[in-house]
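Lab meeting, action items carried over

1. Structure of the six-component assembly. Owner: GW. Status: complete.
Input record:
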Amino acid sequence: MINAKHQPVDAAEVPRFAGQATFMRLPAVPSAEGLDIALVGIPWDGGTTNRAGARHGPREIRSQSSLMRKVHHVSKIAPFSLANIADVGDLSVNPIDLMDALKRIEEGIASIIAVGAIPLSAGGDHLTTLPVLRAVARHRPVGLIHFDAHSDTNDSYFGGNRYTHGTPFRRAIEEGLLDPKRMVQIGIRGSIYETDEHAWAVEQGIRIIYMEEFTRRGASEVIAEAKAIVGSAPTYVTFDIDSIDPSMAPGTGTPEVGGFTTREAQQMIRLLEGVDIVGADVVEVAPPFDLAGMTAIAGATMMFELMCVIAAKFRS
Amino acid sequence: MINAKHQPVDAAEVPRFAGQATFMRLPAVPSAEGLDIALVGIPWDGGTTNRAGARHGPREIRSQSSLMRKVHHVSKIAPFSLANIADVGDLSVNPIDLMDALKRIEEGIASIIAVGAIPLSAGGDHLTTLPVLRAVARHRPVGLIHFDAHSDTNDSYFGGNRYTHGTPFRRAIEEGLLDPKRMVQIGIRGSIYETDEHAWAVEQGIRIIYMEEFTRRGASEVIAEAKAIVGSAPTYVTFDIDSIDPSMAPGTGTPEVGGFTTREAQQMIRLLEGVDIVGADVVEVAPPFDLAGMTAIAGATMMFELMCVIAAKFRS
Amino acid sequence: MINAKHQPVDAAEVPRFAGQATFMRLPAVPSAEGLDIALVGIPWDGGTTNRAGARHGPREIRSQSSLMRKVHHVSKIAPFSLANIADVGDLSVNPIDLMDALKRIEEGIASIIAVGAIPLSAGGDHLTTLPVLRAVARHRPVGLIHFDAHSDTNDSYFGGNRYTHGTPFRRAIEEGLLDPKRMVQIGIRGSIYETDEHAWAVEQGIRIIYMEEFTRRGASEVIAEAKAIVGSAPTYVTFDIDSIDPSMAPGTGTPEVGGFTTREAQQMIRLLEGVDIVGADVVEVAPPFDLAGMTAIAGATMMFELMCVIAAKFRS
Amino acid sequence: MINAKHQPVDAAEVPRFAGQATFMRLPAVPSAEGLDIALVGIPWDGGTTNRAGARHGPREIRSQSSLMRKVHHVSKIAPFSLANIADVGDLSVNPIDLMDALKRIEEGIASIIAVGAIPLSAGGDHLTTLPVLRAVARHRPVGLIHFDAHSDTNDSYFGGNRYTHGTPFRRAIEEGLLDPKRMVQIGIRGSIYETDEHAWAVEQGIRIIYMEEFTRRGASEVIAEAKAIVGSAPTYVTFDIDSIDPSMAPGTGTPEVGGFTTREAQQMIRLLEGVDIVGADVVEVAPPFDLAGMTAIAGATMMFELMCVIAAKFRS
Amino acid sequence: MINAKHQPVDAAEVPRFAGQATFMRLPAVPSAEGLDIALVGIPWDGGTTNRAGARHGPREIRSQSSLMRKVHHVSKIAPFSLANIADVGDLSVNPIDLMDALKRIEEGIASIIAVGAIPLSAGGDHLTTLPVLRAVARHRPVGLIHFDAHSDTNDSYFGGNRYTHGTPFRRAIEEGLLDPKRMVQIGIRGSIYETDEHAWAVEQGIRIIYMEEFTRRGASEVIAEAKAIVGSAPTYVTFDIDSIDPSMAPGTGTPEVGGFTTREAQQMIRLLEGVDIVGADVVEVAPPFDLAGMTAIAGATMMFELMCVIAAKFRS
Amino acid sequence: MINAKHQPVDAAEVPRFAGQATFMRLPAVPSAEGLDIALVGIPWDGGTTNRAGARHGPREIRSQSSLMRKVHHVSKIAPFSLANIADVGDLSVNPIDLMDALKRIEEGIASIIAVGAIPLSAGGDHLTTLPVLRAVARHRPVGLIHFDAHSDTNDSYFGGNRYTHGTPFRRAIEEGLLDPKRMVQIGIRGSIYETDEHAWAVEQGIRIIYMEEFTRRGASEVIAEAKAIVGSAPTYVTFDIDSIDPSMAPGTGTPEVGGFTTREAQQMIRLLEGVDIVGADVVEVAPPFDLAGMTAIAGATMMFELMCVIAAKFRS
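Predicted assembly:
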C-alpha cells in the first residue's frame, strides 16, 4: 500500500531549517525492520592517516539533506513512492579502538541486511566500507563501482598497520568480499607513492579509469564500461567525496585538485540505473574542513542520487 | 519511579558526534505529555530588524548541546533524575507571515502547558517570547527576569510596525501578560535611539540594571535584587544571547560589545534557584553569524543552566 | 557630451579598497534623474522560505564591485562612455512587513522608470522581482529571460502564502506582467516537490531549459533560442545567483549542486546583446552564507556583464 | 541652529543593512567645511612589518558602524546634537610608496584642520598616526593618550627602515610633534625584543602603564593619572585596536593575548571627557584577519565612544 | 659561553612571516643533544573521544609562535640567554594505532631526557601526557600542576577503553608516575557524568580547584596553594588549552564556556617560577576548530610563558 | 648516485601533519649548493595594489605541499629520482621598502643560479618575478610562458609608481630581460582599464591568449602554440594563481571569475615537458583570503607539476 511508506517532511509546509535533522527529512526509526532502503550513519574516522573529521559527516549530511525534495527532476524517480525508506540512526562505533569499531560496524550493517533492507550509509572514512562489505558480502563476493581520487588498495602504513582508509579494498579482496574482476575505480588521480603503486590492483583485475581518461571519454562512455564490468550480479557502490574537486567538496581528509564536478558525478550516478545495487555509501565528508556546508550538501545530493537509482529497483 | 524518566545518551558510551541531534541528547518525543519540562525549538526570526538567522538557532543548539552531561558540577543538580525532560521538536512556524507565525507559536506553547509541562524553548528571535508569554500568561500576568543588551520595549519600527524583536515587552505589558512591577532587565547597554528611550519602560515600573551597574555590583547582589523584584509568584526567564559579549556569542543579530562573560551569566542563572519559573527561553542565537559553534555552545549551556534551576523545583 | 557622463573611480589612481563603496565605484546620486541606467539595491529577503540573508546582498555587491574596471575585455563595450550610469542607493524596504515591502519596492522602481532610466538592481531575494515587474510592466507585459536553478512558479507555501521567493513568476503571469509565451528559464535543476511541479509553467507556455539540456547544447545554442523566444519586444532579464554552482556562489539561500560555471554564465549574458532589455536584476546573493566574498564577486561581475549589454543599447 | 547639523540615518526607519555604508550612517560630504568633527578613513598599511590588512579597515568599520545609534546610554551625550559631524571619505593614499603616502595623509588631515574640524580617523596601520600628527601638531607639540599593546617607539627595522608601524612615536618625538612629558601609553604587554626595549621611551619621559599595572589598579585610577599627565593642553588620542584582547579583536596585524576587554576600553574612553582632544584615531583594524566583523564592530564602537567625548567639548 | 646558545630569528631583521616555521623561530635541530630545554611536537590525537584535530596542533603552534620575541616583559626573563633551547621536531607517532603511538611517544621523550634536556611539548591530545610521564617519571613519581576544564581521571570509555584523553591521570597514578598527594587541578568546570565523578580523584589526594573557587580567590592565592602542594620536588606542568575560555581558545575538542581568560592563565604561569619543573606541555590545541589562529596563538604564548619559568631554573 | 639525492618524508611512514613544514616535505638546506632545482619562498607583496597577503604564501604552500607524493601519476616522472631538489628557505625580503626588497630578491635568486640550480619559487606577489628575471636573465633575454588573468604590462599606478604587481612584464621588457617575441600570456580575462590597454603588449610582440580563446581551442592546441612561440631557447614559466578560477583559488589579491579549472591548468603544465625551463614560479597565493587552504593546495600542486616538467630535463 503506497501510503504505508515513510514520507519526508515537505518544505512547502515545514521550512527546511525546522525540526530535528534526519536524512532527507525522513522519520527516524529504531530499526530497519520493514524498510526497503535504510539510510544510516557511520560516524567513525579511525582509519584516517591524515586529517580526521569524517566522524562528523553523518550529522552534517543529515542537516544539509533538508535541501532535498521528493522527486528526481531528470529521471522522475519518486523514491519515497517506490520504496520504504527511513533514517535508522547511526551505527554504534568506537572512536578509540579500531578493531572494536570494525566489528561494531559490521554487526550494525548485518542487522540491517538481516531484515531485508539495502544499506545506504553516510561515512565516516573509507575504512568503514570494509566492515560494511563484510556484512554485505558475507555469502558471496560482490562487484564494486568505486568513485574516488585514490585507489585505496595500498598494503600497509606506519610500519605495518594494515587497516587504514588507504587499504580497505586490498583487504576486501584478500578476504574474498570483492570480485576484483568486477571492480572499477573511476576518477583516480594525484601524485603517487611509487611508480608501480597501482600494479597490485591492476594485477587483481581491477579496472582503473584515471581522471584523465574520464576527461577524454566522458560520463556516458565511462559508465557504460563500468556497467559492463560489474554486469548483472550484486554490486556495491562506494562514493568517496574526494573524487569531487576540492573546490566543490573541500571538507575531506585528502583533497586532490582536478576532480569531478558535481555535474559530472550526478551524471554518472544517474546512469547507474539498472545495476543490481546491494548497498552503497558516501564517505569521507569531513565537516571540520568544510566550507559553508558545501561538502555536506554535495554528499547529501550524491546520497539522494544513489537512493533514486536504488529505489528504481523497486519499480513493479 | 526514577527510571521512568527520560535519560540522555551518555557520551562515555556513545560519542558526542553520533546520532541525530536532540536537545541534551534526550529522546525526541512527539508531545509534551508526561513531561515536567519540555525542551522545544522555535525556529523563527520574522521579527528581526537587522540580521536574520535565529531561525537556524534550534538546530545548532541541539547539535552543540551534545556537549552537556548529566549533572551540574556546582549545584550538583541532576536534572534528569529530578524531572522528566525530553525534546518535543520544533513548533510549527511560518517564515513568511508574521501574524500567522505568532499564532502558531502561541498554540504550540499552549499545548505544552496544557499537559502540565514547563516550556524551555530555544529561539528564534526575541519576538517569539511574545506569543510564548501569551500562552504562559494566559490566565494571569507573570513576572520577568530578562537578560539582554536591549530593553526591547520600543513602540514601533519602519513607520508603524508594532511587532518586531525590538517591541515584545511593550506589547506584553499592554496585553497584560507581564506585571511591569515584577520585571527586571539585566545587562542593558549600547547606544540608544533617543535620550529618553527607556522612559516608558521605567514609568511602567520595570527595573533596568545597566551593564555598568552590574559591573559595579556583581552577580550576587544583582540577582538578589532581581529575586526580590519577582518574588515568589510565577515568573518567566528570558535570556537573549546578545546579553553575552560578542566575543563569546558573535552569532546574533544585534551585537553590542561590552557584554557579560559566560562566567557571569552562568553565575547569575545558578542563583535563580528558588524562583518559581513557569517558562524560560534562550533567544537570538543566529548560526549564520556564528563562529565555530561558539554561540550555539553558549546557548546550549545557558539552556542547561536554566534547565537545572527549573528541575530543582521538582525536588521532593 | 561624453564627459557629462558619470565615471567610476579609477583603481590605477585610487586603490580599490579606498572610499565608501558604491556600485562599480560610480558616484552615489540622490535620484535617477538624468541617468540612462540606474544601479539600485533592494536589500530585502522577506520572501525567503529557507535561509535568509539576501537583505545584505546590495552592500556586499557594492563592496566587491570595486574589482570592476571600465571596459569589457571581450565585447570592448565601454559602458560609462555609452550611457550615463550611477548608483542611486537602496530602495526603501521593510524587513518586517511583506506587503508593505512589496509596495515600497514597486514605488521605488517606478520612480526610476518615471525619469527614463533603466533599472539594474541587486537583490534581495527573488520575490523582489515581482514588485520590480509591477513597475517595469505597468503598461504592457514584458518578456523574461530567467537564469535560475528553480522555476519559482509554485503556487503557495506554508498553507496558503502566495508571496514567497518560490512564487514570483506565477504571480507575475497572473497579474499580466509577463507574457508566458515570451518567457524562458535556463539552468533549472535539483530535486522537485512533485513529478508535475513544472506542469503549470509549461502549460502557460514558458520554455524551461534544464541544466542537463544546457550541458548538452551549450551557451550559444541556448541563448539563440532564448533570443528567438523573447524576440524584439521589451524584455526583462533576471539572474538568480543560485543558477551558478554553489562552489562558485555558495552565498545563497537554496544552493543546488551542478550549476553553471561563471564562465558559462558570462558567455550567456554576453550573447544577450541585441535584446531590448528594459530592466534587469541579480538576486539571491546572501552574504551571511558567502565565503571570501566569492558570491558577491560573482554577483558584481554578472551586474557588470548585464550593464554592458544594456549599455550597448545606447550606441548611437 | 540645531537642525542644521547632519543626522545619521535612523535604524528604526531604515534598516541597518540598507544603503551605502558611511561612518555612523552619517551623510557622505565632499569636504570638512562646516564640520566640527570630521570622520575620515586612512586606508593604508604600508608601514606594517608583519600581517598587512589594515588598508581594508575604514570600509569595514563604516559597514559595522551601522550598529551605532544616536545617544550614548551612559553619558547621555548626543553627539549629533552637540556637534556637526559627517563622513568626509577616505584620504588619498598610495599603497606602493611609503613616503608618498605619508605626504598625502599629512595633506589630507591638514585640509581638515584648515577648516576648523577635529579629525577622528579610522586607520590604517599605526604609522598613519605619524603624518596625522604632522598636521595636527604643526604649530606646537601635543600630548598623547595612547592605548596599545606595543609602545611603537622602536628605532628601525630591517636594517635601517625608520618608518614602520613600530616606530611612529619615536619619530613624532624627534620631530617635535609630541611632548613626551605629556605622553602616556596604556595596555603595553607581550614579549619584547630586548630587556631595555622601552628604556628610550621612559628616558624621554613617557609614562608606560603595562597591562599588569592596569589589571591591578583599574580604569578609574589609570585614567585619572593619564588625565593628570596630559593636563589641559591640546591632546591627541590614539587607540590601537590590538590593545583589546585578540578574542575580542582578532582582526589585527600583531595580536597579543591578555588584552583589554571591550568593557574596560569603553570605561576608559568614557572617562576622557574633559581632555582637550584635538584629534583621535582608531588604528590597526585588519579585516582580512577578522572574524564575523568582530574587530570592526569593536573599532566602530571605540570611534563612537571617542566621538562622544570629543562632542562633549561642543556643549555650550 | 653565552653565544653558543641557539637564538631565535629576530623579527626586526626578518619578518615574522618569513622562513620555515619552527617553535619560537629557533633553529630546527636533529636531536636534543646539548640542549637545556627541548621544544618538541607530539602530533597525535588518537585518544580523543569527541572532536579530533589536536594532531595538527604542533604545526600551527609553530607557525603562530613567530609572534614571540626574546624577553619576557614582566619577569624580564631572557630564556634564550639563560638556557640552550631549540626545536627538535615532532616525535614519531602513529595515527592509526593507539598502543604503538603511546610507545613511540614514550621513547621519543625518553631520548630527550636521556641527554639531559627538559621536554616542553606541544600536543596532541591529553592522552599524550601519559607516555610523556612514563618517560619523565621513569625513576620516581612526580608532582603535577594541571590546568584544565576537565579532571581527566575517568576510568574507561566505550565499554572498556582505558586509554583515552579522559583517563590519563588515573592511569598515571595507577602506574606510579604521579604522586596524587602532590597533584593539583585548576580550572575544572562543566557538567559532569555522575554526581561523584571526581570522588576517586579526591580520594587519591588530588586537590581540585574548580573554576568557581578560582574566581573567588584569584590567581595569586591559588598558585600559592598549588606551589605548596607540589613543594620543591620534581614537578610536571600540563596545560590543557581548554582550561582557557572557548572565546579565547575555540580550537579544542571539548570546549566548556566559563574558562580562564588568557590574562589569568598568564598570571598563573608566571607565578610558577621556583617550582622544579622537569617537563611541561600545552595540549589539545585543535586547529581544525580554531578561528584566525587564536587558539594556536594562545598555545604558543603559554609555551613561551612556561619556557620562561623553566629557563629561570638555569640562572646561575 | 641516485641515493645521494634528497628524498621527501614518506606519508606512509610519517603522517602528513607531522614535522616542520617544508616544500614537498623535502629537507631544509642552507644553500642551493649541489641542487639541480632549488625550491625557494619569496614572502613579499609590497607591489600589491589591492589586497596584500601573498607575503604569507610560501609558509602556507609549504604546509599544504605535505599532500604531494613522490611520483607523477600521469607522466610517471619521479622528480626526486631524476634531480636533486630541496627547500632552500625563504629569500631575505623587506616588507617596508620596495626598492630594497627588489634588490634582496635579485641577489637571493642570483646566488641560487650561481651554483647551478634552477629556481622554482613560491611568491609573493607578481612583482617578485621582476627581480627573479633580473637574476635569471642577467646574461641574455629569456622567453616567457605566462599563466595569468591579467597581462601585468601596465605602465604605472598612483600617479607614477612604475614598480607594482601590475607592471613587471613591461619593466622586464624595457630592461631587456624578456624577449617579447618569445612571450605568451594565457588566460587573460576580466574588465580592463582602457579599450587599448593591451595595445602596448601586442605591439611588443607578446601573444595574448584570452580565456575565451582558450575555452574554444583547449589546452593541447594552446600549449602547442605556446611551445612554438618560446621555441627551444631558455624560457621562464610564471604561474599567477589568479589564472585559476576564484572558486578553486579564492586566496588571491585580484580575483577574476571565469578562470581555469585546476584540471585545465594541470593539463597545460604537463604539456610543457620539453621546454627549456630555466626558472619558474607560482605567485599571488594570498592565504589571508584563502579558504580551507584551497589556494595553497592549488599552488603546491602547480609547483609539483612544474617541478616534474623541470625534473624531466634531468633525464639522462
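2. GW to write a short summary for the group page. Key points so far: Chain A has one domain: 25-314. Residues 25-314 of chain A form a domain with the Arginase; Chain A fold (CATH 3.40.800.10).
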